[in-house]
Design goal:
Largest sheet: 3 strands, antiparallel
Order of helices and strands: HHEEEEHHEHHHHHEHHEH
Helix content: 40-55%
Number of strands: 7
Distance between the termini: 29 Å
Low-confidence stretches: 6-43
Strand content: 5-15%
CATH topology of the largest domain: Recoverin, domain 1
CATH architecture of the largest domain: Orthogonal Bundle
Radius of gyration: 20 Å
Mean pLDDT: 82
Number of domains: 2
CATH superfamily of the largest domain: EF-hand
Shape: globular
Structural class: mainly alpha
Bound molecules: calcium ion
């Protein structure tokens, strides 16, 4: 599965940078800043929290009045723009099955637009507070994750993150997907002759390689955290911040939910950088979250 995801990155991620999501082709948010990466670009897809209000343009007060997902702009009697809940029936019709999303209420929504519009109508209620976009695609039976499988998850994900970074580096000449500083870090991994190349590796080999080439795995793990930790950049991941990675992964990797749940070891609903590093087997280091070591 991880190899398959990497192939997807190869086809989609690098041409139109996005991670994992072979499912969607819409070009939104692709105008990347230097250093933006696939995960960061996906953030908008699942964003619940951002509301940007800009100056009102005289002729159409709603023109530059942006509303968060699930809301649309309307003007009141005094021509003042305001964000109101979107009527789900005004959402574009889903074209493919992977436009559907599954909510944490285990209900399938036609699209993320329908989901956020519905969530908006529940704003202020306990139900609305607890409702999140769980994963991409229609709700389906996800088999329980066994303890033994849970142990395998970080092994494969670490290897995958490393491979994603190397793939980004290899194709970065034209796309500026990594910052100069990031490129230098990945260059060391890329040029290391001992690097484990992409392939179907046994868990024993992955575990052995992690032990032998531990330093190669540190940056990819911290890099991924940094890409997700954007709203705000505070060293903690909220459910919404984690969504761009989690939502497309769940239908394919049945241990995803359990893995990220146990990552939040103090159970405060946030995954701190230290918790993140720890659940990928990265030892604590003396560094501040701004630098991600
Ligand atoms: Ca954050
Ligand atoms: Ca926590």
């Amino acid at each position: 599965m991880w190899t398959q995801l990497l192939v997807i990155v190869g086809y989609y991620g690098l041409a139109a940078p996005r991670l994992c999501l072979a499912f969607r082709e819409e070009p939104s948010l692709v105008e990347t800043e230097v250093g933006a990466n696939p995960v960061q670009i996906e953030v908008g897809e699942f964003d619940e929290a951002i509301e940007i209000v800009e100056d009102v343009v005289a002729e159409n007060p709603c023109l530059n009045h942006h509303c968060k997902k699930g809301k649309v702009c309307e003007v009141d009697e005094s021509n003042t723009p305001m964000c109101v809940c979107q009527d789900p029936s005004t959402c574009p019709t889903a074209e493919v099955v992977f436009d559907h999303v599954c909510g944490t209420d285990n209900k399938t929504y036609d699209s993320s637009c329908h989901f956020f519009a519905t969530k908006c109508t529940l704003e202020g209620t306990k139900k609305g507070h607890k409702l999140h976009l769980d994963y991409v695609g229609p709700c389906k039976y996800i088999e329980p994750c066994m303890d033994s499988e849970l142990k395998e998850f970080p092994l494969r994900m670490r290897d995958w993150l490393k491979n994603v970074l190397v793939a980004l580096y290899e194709h970065d000449k034209d796309h500026n997907l990594l910052t100069e500083k990031q490129k230098l870090r990945v260059k060391k991994i890329y040029e290391n002759e001992k690097r484990l190349h992409v392939g179907h590796h046994s868990l024993d080999l992955l575990a052995h390689d992690f032990e032998k080439n531990y330093n190669m795995y540190i940056f990819p793990v911290h890099w991924q955290f940094g890409q997700l930790d954007q709203h705000p950049v505070d060293g903690y991941l909220t459910h919404t911040e984690l969504s761009p990675l989690r939502a497309p992964l769940i239908p394919m990797e049945h241990c995803t939910t359990r893995f990220f749940e146990q990552c939040d070891s103090d159970n405060d609903k946030y995954i701190a950088l230290e918790e993140w590093a720890s659940c990928f087997g990265i030892k604590e280091r003396k560094c501040r979250h701004q630098n991600y070591c």
